[in-house]
Amino acid sequence: MSASSAEAGTRIEVVLVKAGRTKLRYPASVVSDDGTRLTVHAPWAAKGTRDFGFVRFEPGDVFTEHYWRDRWYAVKEVRDTDAALKGWYCDITRPAVVQGGEVISEDLDLDLWVSADGATVLRLDEDEFSESGLAERDPEAAARAVAALDELELLAKLGQFTALID
Which of 10, 65, 77, 88 is the most exposed place for a label (fewest CB within 10 A)? Predict the structure, then answer.
């Protein structure tokens, strides 16, 4: 596996970084990598169930995760144990870095949820983003993060969201 692309069928470690620290690390299987977008499959990586109120992530859920090297977000399609679509969880991140058998994604605290039917589109964690101090430390990154969230929300509300990942 080179620093620029990952071969389909290989294993890769997903490394989620937040505030300079590794938040979560888990194995995934590469589905495809065109040099710009890397797509992987991974089981729900956290222990137990996480209930957000609008969706529950639970053991047995499978995530198809899309990471871009040139976009400020990652889109994660979530399916249950019966392969029924729950929806898409979108992390606002710096562009992903793929190197040395890892995809590194730096979380910028903003998120978007899009339900399976597209009827529910929720902006999440805007308070955490404000409290993070990113706007003061790196105003350009903060502006890109907000623009990425706005872009994803607009695509979802226009019914064009799935075109990102098809």
Answer: 10
Long-range CB contact pairs, 26-30, < 8 A, 24+: 28/65, 28/103, 30/6
Report yes or no on 2 lying in a domain.
Answer: no
Q: Are 98 and 4 in contact (CB under 8 A)?
A: yes
DSSP state of 7: -
- DSSP letter for each residue of 90-108: EEEESPPEEETTEEEEEEE
Q: State how far the Cα of 158 lies from the Cα of 41, in Å rounded to an integer.
A: 27
Residue numbers of the domain that contains 72: 11-164
Give tens-digit pLDDT for 143-161.
999 999 999 999 999 988 8
User: How many structural domains comprise the chain?
Assistant: 1
CATH number at residue 136: 2.40.380.10
Residue 60 lies in a domain: yes
Helix (H) / strand (E) containing 130: helix 126-132
